[in-house]
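Lab notebook: predicted structure, single chain.

Context: the supervisor wants predicted structures on file for every construct in the current expression panel, including those that have not yet been purified. This is the next one on the list. No modifications to the sequence; it matches the entry in the shared construct table.
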Amino acid sequence: MQCEPRQNDVHKKEMMAVQDSMDVLSGKWKICIISSICYYNKRRFSDILNDVDGISNKMLSKELKELEINQLVKRTVLDTQPVTVQYELTEHGLTLQTIIDNLTEWGMQHRKKIIGE
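Prediction complete. Output recorded below exactly as produced.
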């Protein structure tokens, strides 16, 4: 009988970990932004803006700042004329590669199953 509370504690920690992950990655745009950077390794702001359909400049800026705060994305200002800002995943951000790959594969299979494309 003592195993049940211990298992429940493990489950609670796992559920907390899922919630923590969702807090960092939630919203309509973050996974798409990470995916864009992941695919190309380094991306300029305008490149990400072109990759992510429907996102505004303001929203992209906000989301990139949040990803930076969570140490998933690194922002580099290049000394060019005009100034160029480049984004890349941090070492911590690169740990999301498998998740992005799995989401991509699942999304392609799901689309095929649901609408046949």
